[in-house]
Amino acid sequence: MLVLGDAHADDHDNRRALFAAYREADPDVTLQLGDLMFYDLPAPTWFIGGNNENFDTVEALRNGLVSNSRVRNAHLLASTAVELDGLQIAGLSGNFAPTQYDRPRANLVGDRRRHFTYEDIEQAMELGSVDVLLTHEAPHGLPVAEEYDVGCSYIDDLLSALSPDLCLIGHHHQHAETTSGDTKVISVAPTWERYYVLDPETLALTWHETPTS
Questions:
Q1: Would you call 168 helix, strand, or coil by DSSP?
Q2: pLDDT tens figures, 78-125
Q3: Predicted TM-score (pTM) of this structure
Q4: Torsion over CA: 14, 15, 20, 21 (sign)
Q5: Is residue 209 classed as helix, strand or coil in its secondary structure?
Q6: How many CB atoms lie within 10 A of CB 173?
Q7: Which distant-in-sequence residues (6+ apart) come within 8 Å of 25 by Cβ?
C-alpha cells in the first residue's frame, strides 16, 4: 500500500514527482495525506483534504457530485472510513481554525472550506473501530519543527475515541514519529522527497526516496 504526503501537485515539478512515486511503487491502493491539488491519478487513491486544495473539487467529492474528466481514481475521506487490504482506514479532512470550528460546515465558503468543524469531529467520533487514521492536523506531542506550538486537542480526542493502531499526518513536510496512548503517530515527508510503503499485515511503514524522473 503506497502512502504519500503533501503533493502540491498543481506545480508541474511536484506533479512529476507525484507520478514518479506512483510509477516506482506501482500500487494497487494509495493513501494520501492532503494538499494533493491534482485529482487525475494513475491508481485508486484515498485522500484527505488539506489546507491547500481545489476546494470546489473537494466539496464535490465530499458530496458525491463529481462528474469531471480531471477527477479520476480520487476518493475523499472526510470523517468517513473505508476497508482496504483488510484494514479499516478513516480520514479527517481539513485543518483547525478556532474561528471556524463552531460554525456549521454548510456556512463555510471559499477558502474557509479548508477547515474541519465540530460536525466533522462528531461524525468521525462515531466511526468505531479503526486501524489507520489519516489527518492533516497533528495531535500534541509530534516533534516537528514549526514556528508555532503544534498540536490540536480535537485530534487528541479523536485518537482517544477511535484508538487506531496508526495515525498518519500530513501538513508539516517533515518525517517525525511519536505515540499517543497506544497509537503510533507518524508525520510523513512531502511526496517530492519520499514515498512510503505500508505493510497491511504489520502496519510497518518504510520510506524510499522519490525518483527524480
A1: strand
A2: 999 999 999 999 999 999 999 999 999 999 999 999 999 999 999 999
A3: 0.96
A4: positive
A5: strand
A6: 18
A7: 2, 195, 197, 208
